[in-house]
UniProtKB/TrEMBL annotation:
Keywords from the named record: Signal
Top-level taxon of origin: Bacteria
Signal peptide: 1-26
Protein name: DUF2155 domain-containing protein
Source organism (scientific name): Aliirhizobium cellulosilyticum
Lineage of origin: Bacteria, Pseudomonadati, Pseudomonadota, Alphaproteobacteria, Hyphomicrobiales
InterPro entries in alphabetical order: DUF2155
Length: 139
C-alpha cells in the first residue's frame, strides 16, 4: 500500500529544518593570534593587545594565555570564541588562576575577566600580528 501524499509531505517539512541546520554549521578556523581589550580601572585606560596562542602576555597584574582562538570564514557571520586562561600575580608574587574558560567576542560581558583593578575580554582572532611571533626554543 503506498504512503499517503500528505504523510510524505509532512515528513519532508518536518525534516527540512534539520537538514538546513546541518548545512548551516560553519567550519571553525583556528587562528594563531587572539586579540584582547583590557581596562585599567584606576586610570580608565583601555588597551588592545595581541597574544599568540599558547603564549602568555602580562597585562598589569594579570597573565593572559589563549589556548585556541576560533573564527569563521568570510562567507559566514563571524562568531569569535577562544579558550583562555588568566592568572593573577599576587602581591606576595604567587600566581593564582582566576579564569579558565571560553570567551565570546560577541558577548564580552558573558565571560570577561573581572578583577578589582583590571578587566580583560576577547575582541577578535586573526591569522597574523604586527608583533613578531615568539622565537621557538631549540634543543
Amino acid at each position: 500500500m503506498p504512503f499517503p501524499r500528505k504523510l510524505i509531505l509532512g515528513a519532508l517539512i518536518a525534516v527540512a529544518p534539520l537538514l538546513a541546520t546541518e548545512q548551516a554549521v560553519a567550519a571553525r578556523i583556528s587562528n594563531p593570534v587572539a586579540v584582547f581589550a583590557g581596562i585599567d580601572k584606576i586610570t580608565g585606560r583601555i588597551t588592545t593587545f595581541d597574544v599568540y596562542v599558547n603564549e602568555t602576555v602580562q597585562y598589569g597584574a594579570l597573565q593572559v594565555t589563549p589556548k585556541v582562538c576560533y573564527s569563521r570564514d568570510d562567507t559566514e557571520a563571524q562568531k569569535i570564541d577562544g579558550f583562555i586562561e588568566v592568572d593573577e600575580i599576587t602581591l606576595d608574587r604567587k600566581i593564582r588562576r582566576i579564569f579558565s574558560g571560553w570567551m565570546f567576542a560577541d558577548s564580552p560581558g558573558l565571560n570577561a575577566v573581572e578583577h578589582p583593578i583590571y578587566d580583560v575580554w576577547l575582541t577578535g582572532c586573526k591569522p597574523q600580528s604586527d608583533i613578531p611571533a615568539p622565537a621557538k626554543a631549540t634543543n
